[in-house]
From TrEMBL:
EC number(s) reported in the record: 3.2.1.21
Protein name: beta-glucosidase
UniProt-annotated catalytic positions: E390 (nucleophile), E841 (nucleophile)
Family to which this protein belongs: Belongs to the glycosyl hydrolase 1 family.
Subunit description: Homodimer.
Database matches in InterPro entries: GH, GH_1_N_CS, Glyco_hydro_1, Glyco_hydro_1_AS
Hydrolase recorded as keyword: yes
Gene Ontology BP term (one): carbohydrate metabolic process
Coiled coil: none
UniProt keyword terms in alphabetical order: Glycoprotein, Glycosidase, Hydrolase
Source organism of the structure: Sinocyclocheilus grahami (Dianchi golden-line fish)
Superkingdom, natural source: Eukaryota
Amino acid sequence: VPPVMQMYGNKIGITRLPSLPPSEVPSKSKVVWEKFSPQTKFERQLYHYGTFPEGFHWGVSSSAYQVEGGWNADGKGPSVWDTFTQKPGNIPNNDNGDVACDSYNKIDEDLHMLRALKVKTYRLSLSWSRIFPNGYKSSHNQKGVDYYNRLIDGLIANNITPMVTLYHWDLPQALQHINGWDNPEMINIFNEYCDFCYATFGDRVKFWITFNEPQTIAWSGYGLGQIPPNVKQPGDAPYRVAHNLLKAHAQVYHTYDEKYRASQGGLVSISLNAEWAEPLDINVPREMVAADRALQFQLGWFAHPIFKNGDYPDAMKWQVGNKSELQGLPNSRLPSFTDEDKAFIQGTADVLYGSENTAVNEQKAVAWGLRRLLNWLKEEYGDPEIYITENGVATGTAVTVDDTDRIFFLKTYVDEALKAHNLDGVRVKGYIASSLMDSFEWLKGYTVGYGLHYVNFKHSSRPRTPKRSAHLYFDIMRNNGFPLPTEEEMLYGHFPEGFIWSTATAAYQVQSILTNTLYFDSPAYIWDKFAHTALKISQDENGDIACDSYNKITEDINSLKTLRVNHYRFSISWPRIMPDGTTRKINEAGLNYYHRLVDALLAANIKPQVTLYHWDLPQALQDVGGWENDTIVERFRDYSDVVFNSLGDKVKFWITINEPYNVAMIGHGTAPYIVAHNLIKAHAEAWHVYNDKYRAKHGGIVGITINSDWAEPRNPYKQEDVDAAVRVVQFQIGWFAHPVFNGDYSDLMKNIIRERSLAAEFTPAEVARIKGTHDYFGFNHYTTVLAYNMDYKNLEGAGTVADRTWLDSGSFWLKVTPVGFRNILNFIKEEYGDPPIYITENGVSERESMNLNDVHRIHYYDNYINQALKAYLLDGVDMRGYAAWSLMDNLEWTMGYDERFGLFYVNRSDPSLPRIPKKSVWHYATIINCNGFISPGEIPHECQIHEPGIDIPGTYLLIYM
């Protein structure tokens, strides 16, 4: 069998349908793979905002053995799970359900949780052996019946609809003594029990589930022998058991149909489970067949007889039949239904309920598999109504109420169900979260928990405490899904007149170092040496050629013209001008290159934004300690003076140092404070050189470009996480901005520096020299993180994670989180005295196979630039300019050419390295030409820029669902 990727455990419910033809092999539902498998990562991940229709069924679930306890209270008989768990060694820590959550004695507490959540539906199961202790009606136990009457009456009194499972794995032990579900007599015995339940509770219960996960009962109970009754006969027992379960289900369905439906008006069905199966390669037919067969052996085993034609899927009959023949058996191990059986089974469901759960260390959360499974059900079973009757994730015992993983799980899985409903037309009618509270989790005992409420099993009273996920789920239900948050709505408007629109590159990443041979007896850049020695990467993966911008000024200028930018940010290569980093040798050829570039820009009416230092330190300076050597401050001052003097009459926008945080942190693990100290002083000296010698005659501005993520607390209700988020921002943006804009390091940083005995504080004279060395705030920003406290002593004492609902990119660290951009711009305004802000880098990477239709990047720029517009128009942030990173795909440092940030694709297989515009070029050009965002009502508009040869009115603003 070809390998098949399994997407774990979806239990689904669907409405009753007329007889359908048997499934083909593979089934016609292969259209789901054909539709969804080619999706890009962006298309899979993009979050969908919207709501379910009115009347959508929201609820939570539990099951009798997992929560009730009272295993022998008031006449209850033992079940197979009582017998199994009470034997030492079967369950971790010898856990069992003898007490569990003690729900048998805590109806009021359970009702309180349900009432507080404001759920519409509660899915519970009845304990057969609590009602009939030995499984037969003759053993009727009224106290057990009274318990369920009290529970059901309490639900009704609180306007909560009970959804009742008649059998959730806890078979009376007495019936297992007659071989349990492997005995055909169980069909009538089960019918007797269900008949009693209908008659007793059916006046109030309108949703009935006959069996929970019959596939698990048959395969795990009688094949693998993992769960009671622990029979290990995988060759034949599961098929016999499933045969009996299907007949038993059909019998009790007909009993309700004939005796109770007219008076009670309820619905009866079955809850099936399935794992989504994805072909490893959609283009390989046998892998498509294998994926389809995997679904037919799980879901189709029971759904096909009930919802299609009363018989097993052909894929299953052929597979088992062929193997049985090869084994020399006279008949297939898969039993056959008579025509009478088929007619009796087909259509025995009014709705089909189901669930999906993900367990720690076993199953993986792959939310997009749920959407595909729902679509498969739509195609396979004739567009039915679908109820998801369990969905949840387990977390370990270390997690109590702060269950971040469950929050991520709910947000992603519910959203995939919403996509199926809103985008694909799947008739999803209900969603039940698993589970109401932590409980006995079968073979895992109490080592994991699925609950929205934490239960302290070490306390005799089993207190329940709502987790963060309970609050989230409350909000999801209240909002009936995920309405678009106000802060993510598009704002239509314009930036101020004279706004600077730019794009950016850096010398080492694009220029090519091989073109100037005056100083290449040994590597002159620290990155050159690193790329050739430390990484040992090939010439194609270093900056030797890069994009060859050194020789392609004309091509680059043409690209900039296409973008309609009025500025271009690039960096000066220090060793290209001063090979050893000092004034002893000035390389006139290097300076001449920059004159030619600047002159070409100005001739095209594009103004240069020049960065003096973008990480490519002369190797000669690194050989004497680099930024850890105090003399670097003087060296940088001298270098800046040379550049200002040579280019200052043409360049009016200067950046001293790009991202000093990364310079300090990356490659200086033992001395980041010393490096940062010298970087700040070097910046200040360069600013003073310009201020003292060149400002009056050149009239330019000088600043430093600081980078920072925005940080939100992982748990906004936890002070430790709130404090950690503050530290993350202060250690990125504040480390350098606070001395430059406010004078000296922040008190938070100084306290940590002193606490760790790190000698890195400014003298009063240095503070005076550094404070105010800015004409603007240069800012690079890409993403947002969720911060939490960490006890061990990294710099900021904080760890970070990403919300799984955030879009990925081609860089592991870069998640698409536009709202954080507006937040941090407001932070800069409030923290640093409302300075003029220039965004000097912002962009997104991709890794997937080259596609010029880069909708991911278009989505990123649309949303990030719009958040900047909100900061300007709504918040009064003094926004002056924006630069997209980057002009073209280039060498992305240690990632080589694998991560592509470019607006232009550089075809590296062509020796001429042509720059080819991606779709984002025309989109960014439109934003520039419109100086912001025009409203849909203004489209078509004369400011729109269309790709040559394409002029389609109304396509300016792309809407992604």
